[in-house]
TrEMBL record:
The keyword Phosphoprotein applies. It comes from the Bacteria. It holds the Pfam family HisKA. It comes from Ramlibacter tataouinensis (strain ATCC BAA-407 / DSM 14655 / LMG 21543 / TTB310). This is histidine kinase. PANTHER family: OSMOSENSING HISTIDINE PROTEIN KINASE SLN1, TWO-COMPONENT HISTIDINE PROTEIN KINASE. One of its GO terms (molecular function) is histidine phosphotransfer kinase activity.
Amino acid sequence: MPNQYLATSLPEHELAELHRLMTEEIKEVAVFFMNTEGIITTWNRAAEDMKGYTPQDAIGSHLGLLYTEEDRARGWPEHNLGEARKHGFYREESWRRRKDGRLFWARIALTALRDRTGQLVGFSKVTMDLTDHKLLESCVNEREEIRRILHAANAGMWTWHPASDRIDVSADFLGLLGHAHGPTTMSLPEWMAFVDPQDRELVARRFETARASGADEPLVMDVRLCKKDGSCRWFHVRADWSRASPQQPYALSGVNVDIHDLKTAEEELRRAFGKLKEADKRKDEFLAMLAHELRNPLAPIRSAAELLKRIDVAEPRVRKTSEIIARQVDHMTHLVDDLLDVSRVTRGVATLDKEPLDVRHIVMDAVEQVDPLLRTRRHELALQLSPETAVVYGDHKRLVQVMANLLNNAAKYTPEGGRIQLRTQVRGAQEVVLEVIDNGIGMEPELAARAFELFAQAERTPDRSSGGLGLGLALVKSLVELHGGSVHCSSEGAGKGSCFSVGLPLVSAQVAAPAPQLPEAAPQSIQQRLRVMVVDDNADAAHMLAMFLEADGHQVQVEHDARQALERARVDPPDVCLLDLGLPDMDGNELARQLKSHAETAGAVLVAVTGYGGEHDRTEALAAGFSQHLVKPVDPAQLTLLLSRIRPAP
């Protein structure tokens, strides 16, 4: 049975005095009484001061007046009265609401009052305002939480008071620097002793700047702080201005976070990136040199093959051999070009000459390029072109290269006598899709998913019948993405063929695409006999090129040394100079400038014939005075056409 609290255990005069004391003299504790329904019947001065309600407001109101809206909604006043009625009293600490809406933390004791017979006659309630205590407790908890956070984050706090030039530091700050114990208040110079000597001047300036700027700017910096054992670590410092009250001076409170491992990793990453960048540069230089070195031997081989074609040889095997050599030189040349193209595109230095293009013209030009391979492998090519006009904005040469690579890939990986389909579809007004579908060897889904990755290939067979460098499709993807398009590969599996698709954004059909230019036919016979000087330190390349030109009726001089070439040209001025750029004693560009500077040779047409095929090489050559820049091995038809347009000097 709960304890009984008698309402009338005192004589009348003592009870009246007790009532007066509770209502008038007790200033810190709110005391009031209620009837059995929880209606307030008395209200002391402390209750008025604490809760903001006058006796007129409170007396006659239900106890729920003093609770928050949330507590009233959940029936908490009735619950508390019920608990007191049942157990004799009810105690709790919770937030209560003042009349002006402000909350305060209250400790309450609600007691059921009974008469001598045990009959409930009312309730008394005593309330203490513990808001300050609660706030202090919260501060302590917050400080402990901050301490845990600082410890977990490897951080320490400090506060600088510019008015006194003193700095308060936390125990975590000292602990980070290896000081288990130490003063938590110090002067700014004492604090600066923690800073690495290399950084002290900079940090001192930053503090002086912060002092001069007042409370306008936070202090943010990375600084090295030294530990007790002499080692130094990197810390990130962030400090903001604040003050306790408008009357107090501003203080700068900061946090130092240990970022040494991050800084070290960043530095290692920067060094690794530098090495990677240097390696990438060397790789590009190597590829350029490799291309030059590969093209140099290809040049005389191509010239020899072309010369054999032009000689009236009765022996069929000789003609067949020259055709094979020419095809293999073309194949090697394409490999070298793909290798350099991939390098340029991946470095982002490939340039596009964009214009409106009719997709049909792109397709037909690509088919024309691949036709010899298709015929050699006896493939059937079916074209299914959309009747709708599809105009894209792109580089004609590069988009033809994309489709030619896809057709080459299909021809290569389809057994002889296969079927290849090339079709175009216009999808809405946004995109045109070009698909190359074959019935070739197909691929597993894993390979299809990475078909466009650099060097991606299926497992090689011992005979390497499906070899290659794995560059063509990677180049396709890069070039298509440079045009804002996308690529996709699908296959139902090994032996079930493949489908490669390219999606390109459309431009308005009203934008006129230029008509395709018909290739200019090479002249059947030489119209003008030119005096040609060939300068190349590769003797085989120079002599084979000379023989080819002589077969076309030109008068050819050959030199392997730039200075000798310059002297001979001044004595016997040529109409055309075909100059290699990589000459040992004087490079081709300098030789070109020398030739252009002398009156005897200034009128000669200069043509660079070189293994260096980069855009930078071309730009330098044209700036040096060359009219044309041809890359080895030179296409014989292109060279013949070029020379046919040059008129000999009178």
